[in-house]
Write a structure and sequence with these properties.
By secondary structure, the protein is mostly helical. The protein has one domain. It is about 50% helix and about 0% strand. The chain has a two-stranded antiparallel ribbon with strand order 1-2. A hairpin with a 4-residue loop joins β1 and β2. The N and C termini lie far apart (about 95 Å). The model has no long low-confidence stretch (mean pLDDT about 90).
């Protein structure tokens, strides 16, 4: 008795799962907390840009959201290196001049992109959870194709980090025992660490090299940046809250809510 076998592939229909997800854990908690954290940063940033005062004379504290101050409308001590290249014509809050530099750097940051894609756009909100969008084009069309300019925002962020470091050192020189001086210094350290932990920075230092042995200095820089890059996510959050905290503290001192001698 003969037996015939067929080599034809067996077609299996894809499982039709009508529920949004089969996950039973609290998968929604992470995107919710991310949404609240980023929203708080956005709301505070808009408020801080238009809030005054932002400078404490004598202690040389300047709020990070208002630095650098580049117009004659700025208090004289708050001007970067005492200069006012924007002259008398600019009378709007100083934060508007530099908002796009650190803001653009964070907006196009690889980690933040993942964060607000998941928390604001739900694309997707979590692993193994359906997203509400029926079409996916990635970052190949406007406006998301503009994310590719992240590297250029990185160069601007390096300048902003250097300015905030200068502000912190200036505050330490004038008020070495002031709490605000050390708060500004901690914020500067976190801002610079977050900036250097950027994926673009890692690529720029030595990401395109084929032979590390021929470029020992760049290899050492790449190794250092790679260690920071592994902490990019916690540094992103720590620097975000540190810049808000430092900015708010300086404004409280400038308003007299915190007594200056103890600040």
């Amino acid at each position: 008795m003969s037996q015939t076998t067929s080599d034809a592939p067996v077609r299996r229909q894809r499982a039709q799962i009508k529920v949004r997800t089969l996950r039973t854990d609290r998968w929604w908690l992470a995107p919710l907390l991310t949404f609240l954290g980023l929203s708080a940063f956005l709301v505070y940033g808009v408020w801080a840009i238009f809030d005054t005062p932002y400078y404490v004379p004598g202690a040389e504290y300047i709020a990070p959201f208002s630095s650098p101050c580049l117009a004659t409308s700025c208090p004289e001590g708050a001007r970067l290196f005492g200069l006012a290249p924007f002259g008398d014509w600019y009378t709007l809050p100083p934060g508007l001049l530099i908002l796009g530099l650190p803001g653009g750097f964070r907006l196009t940051c690889y980690y933040y992109r993942k964060s607000y894609y998941r928390s604001f756009w739900l694309s997707p909100p979590a692993c193994a959870v359906q997203e509400p969008h029926g079409k996916y084009t990635g970052e190949t069309r406007l406006p998301l194709i503009m994310q590719n300019i992240h590297r250029y925002f990185f160069y601007a962020a390096i300048v902003i980090g250097a300015i905030l470091s200068y502000d912190a050192i200036l505050a330490l020189v004038h008020k070495p025992l002031g709490l605000g001086s050390w708060i500004l210094l901690l914020n500067a350290v976190l801002i610079v660490a977050y900036t250097l932990s950027c994926h673009s920075c890692r690529h720029i230092t030595a990401g395109r090299l084929n032979h590390f042995s021929r470029h020992p200095v760049r290899y050492r820089a790449w190794t250092f940046v790679s260690k920071l890059n592994a902490k990019h996510q916690p540094l992103a959050w720590a620097s975000m809250f540190s810049v808000m905290g430092a900015d708010f503290y300086v404004r409280l001192v400038a308003k007299g809510i915190i007594a200056f001698p103890y600040a």
